[in-house]
Amino acid sequence: MVIGGASGIGWATAQLLSARGDTVIIADLDGIAAETQATELGGNTTGHRVEVTDEQAMRTLFDTVAADHGPIGTVVDCAGISRPGTIADLSLADWKATVDVCLTGAFLTVKNATHSMRDGGSIVLVASLNGRQPGVGMGAYCAAKAGVLMLTQVAAMELAPRGIRVNAVNPGFVHTPLTYGATLVPGLVDEYIENTPLGRAGTPEDVARTIAFLTSGDTGWMTGSAIDLNGGAHTMRYPNIVERVAEMVATNSDTE
Ligand SMILES: NC(=O)c1ccc[n+]([C@@H]2O[C@H](COP(=O)([O-])OP(=O)(O)OC[C@H]3O[C@@H](n4cnc5c(N)ncnc54)[C@H](O)[C@@H]3O)[C@@H](O)[C@H]2O)c1
């Protein structure tokens, strides 16, 4: 099951897991996109609408899938949003929305997975470079993703007796609909790339391949771990998004 599987990293993951022969369940807030992508994958793939922050909806999703297909082997949580803003200016609503989807969603994923998974299965949570590297204007997202990394470790300890492994991936900048807004800010993506030793942004497929690896027998002795996947960006500094946006606003008002 790939939650947040209708777009970006989740969709690339769904395609890869399907190509290796898994029966894939795509769950997403955008239920129409989930169903459309499921149809594209064909086979036994099904698409479902789910709000990852809604405990009852998540319970129903996992129950339905387990009833239809039996105990689930792999669960990947790719659902995420980001509401940037400095701590001084960020609204409580934006803080809560980000933490709810990114952290509470991960909690509800693990919680429900434990009831519907087979022993020996694998859970992957998509955290972020921002779970370990701070960025100005990224307070809610950074805090939520750091929480996901600790949740990964606690879940790994609690589920180890059943042989269920819980790991995370920490992608750096990847071109997806989530990051489209950043591409509209002059110089921002360039600054990401300058701070990436391998000199390029990631692709959804880069991340999907690592997720597939974490759900394979090749990582059967790995749990409670997080894989940094960012072209080396964690060794450098994170761009100042707020400064870049302020520059853009100043330039736009100069030209008006
Ligand atoms: N793109 C990046 O640069 C990047 C970097 C690091 C981490 N991430 C993380 O990777 C994950 C996937 O992001 P992406 O870049 O593929 O973005 P995306 O926007 O392409 O995909 C996110 C998916 O999550 C779904 N979603 C959002 N809110 C939801 C909710 N409340 N309930 C259920 N589904 C919901 C969306 O409908 C969408 O299909 C996220 O957790 C994101 O934080 C992305």
From TrEMBL:
A single GO BP: fatty acid elongation
UniProt keyword list: Oxidoreductase
Annotated Ketoreductase domain residues: 1-172
InterPro entries: KR_dom, NAD(P)-bd_dom_sf, Sc_DH/Rdtase_CS, SDR_fam
Keyword Oxidoreductase: yes
Oxidoreductase keyword on record: yes
GO molecular function, one term: oxidoreductase activity, acting on the CH-OH group of donors, NAD or NADP as acceptor
SMART domains: PKS_KR
A family per Pfam: adh_short_C2
Record-stated family: Belongs to the short-chain dehydrogenases/reductases (SDR) family.
Protein name stated in the entry: SDR family oxidoreductase
UniProt organism field: Nocardia speluncae
Native organism taxonomy: Bacteria, Bacillati, Actinomycetota, Actinomycetes, Mycobacteriales
